Amino acid sequence: MPRTEELYARYVVPLSRRGLTIVRGKGCCAWDEHDKRYLDLGGGVAVNSLGHAHPAITETLARQSATLIHSCNLYYNPWQGELARRLVELTGAGKVFFCNSGAEANEGLIKLARKFGHETGRYEIIATTNSFHGRTMATLSATGQEKIQHGFEPLVPGFVHVPYNDLAAVEAAITPKTAAILVEGIQGEGGVYVATPEYLLGLRKLADAKKLLLLMDGVQCGFFRTGRWQSYQRILENTPGGESFRPDAIAMAKSLGAGFPIGAVWIREPYQDVFTPGSHGTTYGGSPLACSVALTVLDVVEREKLADNIRTRGDQLVAGLNKLVGKGAITAVRGYGGLVGFELEKEEPGPAVARLTEAGLILIPAANKTVRVLAPFNVTSAEIAEALAIIEKTL
Ligand code: PLP
Q1: Which residue of 68, 110, 265, 343 lies most exposed, with the fewest beta carbons within 10 A?
Q2: Does position 355 have pLDDT exceeding 80, yes or no?
């Protein structure tokens, strides 16, 4: 057994099956310990928005770590203030809370809903089946997948699950105890299921009418991954009234740090001061180093027009995959930009991804027989063509 695998077998908690040791990367390519090259369109599960070893990230990490890595949230931190301003400008009037991961950002949404409903005795959150919101006790309780929850019961109370894209089911689930609705714009782990425009606009109306918070988990589908800043903008761009749609709060993480851990919760006016001093916090959240990296990611995405690039490359990928539908392996293609899923006819996604990896292409399995292509935003046309050729040949 190679040394790294031996160390894992002896010393690392066995939480997932691994078949590959990645030792370095550059752009959309990664290499294993035998120097075999892979095209990495798994992006570290929708994290590596700028690919591997982007020089601007390397430069920022070096410069900022030589200046100030951490100061803690008892003090002002110029980089956090600036990043909050940029996120508010991109999203809408409101404020931002910084944390360290997607689950922690969703914990922030859940606590926001609890605090918001507290005085009126409301605490329930309506979430959806097939969703994924994280692995902490509250976020796995919010997650609508039994396989994630199994073994950890009793779950955190206060979550009700209804089918995704079913507005009537949400309406029927509202009780006097309901405080909020929580949805992903695109269910990523669940198999790349996209919310319909009618669903999103309907949820907004329902939340307004019943005075509920509309919370969106944009951890995987947000941050330009669809070619627009947030997935709802891409979904609603041809729908009348779509441009003015806003949820009340959004959880962000993954692509925001391009590999450096950071999470954020944007909270819309007039709810931005529901959290008061002492009611929520974290030691590391929004550190000078994390915020500097996120500011650089935003700069690079804007300067290199990467939102447009991932949108075009996603269209190329979807068109190419659609040509393979019905040829014996792929039955459906879903998603946008850097969040595209293809559903397999017979094979389970785990073994299919293992065969693709062997053939030199790294992708990510999802639920419902789906394989995800989570390409970095700077993926090239040639790399998408290479991925399509490997998928066609292998599957
Ligand atoms: N929410 C969504 C939609 C996710 O896809 C994920 C992770 O895959 C999470 C939350 C949890 O994020 P993290 O693993 O950073 O805690």
Answers
A1: 68
A2: yes
